What we know:
Layout: H1 8-14, H2 16-27, E1 28-29, E2 34-35, H3 43-46, E3 52-57, H4 59-76, E4 80-84, H5 85-88, E5 99-105, H6 111-122, E6 126-131, H7 137-141, E7 144-147, H8 160-179, H9 185-206, H10 209-219, E8 224-229, H11 233-248, E9 251-256, E10 274-277, H12 284-296, E11 301-306, H13 310-315, E12 318-322, H14 330-348
Parallel strand pairs: 3-4, 3-5, 5-6, 6-7, 8-9, 8-10, 10-11, 11-12
Antiparallel strand pairs: 1-2
Bound molecules: fructose -6-phosphate.
Fructose -6-phosphate is lined by residues 58-61, 105-107, 110, 113, 157-158, 242, 246, 362-363.
Amino acid sequence: LKGQYPHFMLKEIHEQPEAIADTIWSLATLDPPALYFDDLGPAADRLADIERVVLIGMGTSLHAAMVGQRYIEAFAGIPADADNASEFRYREPVLDDRTLVISVSQSGETVDVLEAMAVARQAGALQVTVCNTAGAQTTRVADGTVYTRAGLERGVASTKCFTTAVVALYLLALRIAQAKGRLSDRELALHLHDLAQLPRAVSEVLRQQDLVRKRAVSLAAAQHVLFLGRGLAFPVAMEGALKLKEVSYIHAEGYAAGEMKHGPIALIEPSFPTVAIATRHALRTKMISNIEQIQARGGPVTGVVTEGDAELTALCDAVLTVPAVSSWLEPVAAVIPLQLLAYDVAVHRGCDVDQPRNLAKTVTVE
Ligand code: F6R
């Protein structure tokens, strides 16, 4: 079942180019440029009336939702928030029939997501779920579904379901923009053209596994690792930290880089490495100043940078590179080296990668 791969996690990391392509082309065509959302059901006609979007999810799916939030604000021009479903369900969220609640759940069975959806339903919100499992519970509760086409994910650490959820949310944000009359045919064509390049870019990152492995050997001895990002790279930093902690048991934190001076910088010392996501569009110059501040305190920095970025390559203590992709797709490219890094660190430390201690693939109890 794992074929040539020693672990499902590695196999699933390598399945991403195909999973991403399958997800994109199940929801869109390039020629003619068009979006097809066959499972939106009654939600399709109501998208034009939506005034606000709330995205909910847990863990990795929440991180995908945080990327989706930024897409919806930028493309559809309506307020969007991403919230942890376990918090959302116990607040008194203000929702109405002009609010669209988008739940993101690979399994479609996560209890906190389902309970949050029940709260949303009670308030009369329109609901769409982004799900990887046909017929799962979230798809039964929601008014409409956007399926990701990642195929079965067996590794407890989610990888291909993150990247496919991000591209599904990208396309859904375009669909909402279209319903709101904010997307021209030309703009749609440009977005689809960018998306069409993505599987090849991801394949390119995957070819760097040997380089990542070298970085992994040096990080494997760390007790703590900080992941920093800004803008679209902030959720990627959160996801990089989550991947590392769950499979390698190294304490890792994902932070918005702008928060550094508000506390975390106190931790920096030579034995505390940082991974900084500083690709072309990820507020790169701001990240450069964060990196310099960390280095001034003796902290070693591994940068995730765009290929050919000589300045950052010279500045960082080590770099992992990703090919240039459109600004909106940088989160997908940048997360791949972090997935590989978490995997390699865990293998180096002798951890059970596919079945980390204390974790279940689907969390159906609180
Ligand atoms: C992390 C991971 C978990 C899940 C979370 C939500 O690698 O797998 O954080 O993302 O339990 O699960 P779903 O997406 O099934 O709702």
